Amino acid sequence: MFSFCYPLIYTHFSHFQVVSTEARAMYNVGLAGLTYWSPNINIFRDPRWGRGQETPGEDPLLSSKYGSSYVKGLQQTDDGDPSLLKVAACCKHYTAYDLDNWKGVDRYHFNAVVTQQDMDDTFQPPFKSCVIDGNVASVMCSYNQVNGKPTCADPDLLAGVIRGQWKLNGYIVSDFDSVDVFYNSQHYTKTPEEAAALAISAGLDLNCGSFLGKHTEAAVKAGLLNESAIDNAVTNNFATLMRLGFFDGDPSKQLYGKLGPKDVCTPENQELAREAARQGIVLLKNSAGSLPLSPTAIKTLAVIGPNANVTKTMIGNFEGIPCKYTTPLQGLTASVATTYVSGCSNVACGTARVDDAKKIAASADATVLVMGIDQSLERESFDRVDLLLPGQQPLLITEVAKAARGPVILVLMSGGGFDISFAKSNDNITSILWVGYPGEAGGAAIADVIFGYYNPSGRLPMTWYPQSYVDKVPMTNMNMRPDPSNGYPGRTYRFYTGETIYTFGDGLSYSNVSHQLVKAPKLVSIPLEEDHVCRLSECKSVEAVEQSCKDLAFDIHLRVQNKGRYSGSHTVFLFSSPPSVHNSPQKHLLGFEKVVLTEKSESLVRFKVDVCKDLSVVDELGSRKIALGQHLLHVGSLKHSLNLRV
């Protein structure tokens, strides 16, 4: 089974269509299967998580839209038949899974204690969207327990929610040996037969591993499990194979039978990898006169850093096999003459070669530092313990910036964020770019942005916290909401009350873009029955029920203007700050639209806001409520007050 990870906030339905086309081509020559255990749509709750790099970020709405688009791109067939699958996707890891191995606490033993409110407004929405909107073929349950129950043995989470409430059309699979884990590591059952029976009865259809193959028959013979439960599981698994066309005869005569090596690594697909990387680059700082660099004015460019000439680092984890690599050094050298010093032997940077790096920076017209981390410091089964750049990287950056003759561009390669306050506040460091793990064409994309061939438009999909955050917040605390009684600051931009280095949605471009409100209501009335209690007494919220919600929506129109001289894309985020009821978020994302703006042009952007879906909050018991009172809508620096009342 393969899983592909693509850049974070900027993926698109068509990108995944290309992935599934290449998957079918590789399947036809015996190099791949047709079930892909991807995407990872867990919430990037804590910046230390080693697998945050696989996810779309910290926001539930973004993760929901990403997940359903990813699934549709992989699964939808060219003839549009919803009963068929091009390949089968799998949304993982269900649920509240976002700790791998932190200070001796590992995912095989961790019990995630989650409130119903956090479960329903943070952890569950991406999976719900994957199943309902994306029609995903599979959901994978996780290793961890949630509130004392292994997820792969919880009938409420599996049979109750995934198959019962959300109506999954497909199969539920365990993470690798999850059933073995809850028997042998968590000691949740006394016998292996009880574990097998419990998992299948809870709604598990397929065990990744050998545990069910060894113990299910004995569970049936012991009277712990009915054969009808096994029949259901087998039916769900084989129905997926049927939708994939496994039993339709000669594969070469089927819809994708003619795909082969010629359809893998095509020039168009390689260009798409470069475009995806370009779209994912986030410009975090840009002083006047820094970026973009002029490829004609720059005669010599100093390129420094342990990630400046890397290949495999760029493709992250759960990676495919690249067509070819373009390293940052190669990408930059394609435009200007470069001098190169690694500065550190690896990203741990135990001893920096500061003098060599300073020497080339002092004689170059500009300097690019390519720093950050790699899979040695964040990965599956390995979480970080701090938010600082490792070893002597800060020393190398600071000393080079002090010695450099021209602009200094700091490029950070990583999955998670850092406390880089030292660089943000250093005037000698004129620009900062975060590039994630940008894929095989990452070096070319970095050069495209640095030299102005591409106007950056990426936005941060997660908050970057100060180092003090990790001193206050243990990874094991799953609470999203702050607790003033003990100084707990909360998590993510939606709830976190402390200082940030950068926050969700941050990202600059080479253009100055303005937003102007064209159309938005100031008052919306919620229709209620004549005898409703909230007509007779003051209520802070009302239930988001069908009779109140029907056709309850309004439009927001915005004029978005590019006042700069660079053309490019611009993402418009619509946020809302709801009234302070039910421990509601201080701010949450309602929607986003990407527009392409040529220089000095403008565009009209329209949002349709569904009051019950978009302006409701989840209460303490997990129910959706429409918060009454003032909602503050935000787009960039623009704010608009909206009153919801009965």
From TrEMBL:
Lineage: Eukaryota, Viridiplantae, Streptophyta, Embryophyta, Tracheophyta
Pfam families documented for this protein: Fn3-like (PF14310), Glyco_hydro_3 (PF00933), Glyco_hydro_3_C (PF01915)
Fibronectin type III-like domain segment(s): 570-639
InterPro entries, per the entry: BXL (IPR044993), Fn3-like (IPR026891), GH (IPR017853), Glyco_hydro_3_C (IPR002772), Glyco_hydro_3_C_sf (IPR036881), Glyco_hydro_3_N (IPR001764), Glyco_hydro_3_N_sf (IPR036962), Ig-like_fold (IPR013783)
Keywords assigned: Glycosidase, Hydrolase, Signal
Protein's name in the database: Beta-xylosidase/alpha-L-arabinofuranosidase 2-like
CC per GO annotation: apoplast
Keyword Hydrolase on entry: yes
Keyword Membrane: no
GO BP field: arabinan catabolic process; xylan catabolic process
Gene Ontology MF term list: alpha-L-arabinofuranosidase activity; xylan 1,4-beta-xylosidase activity
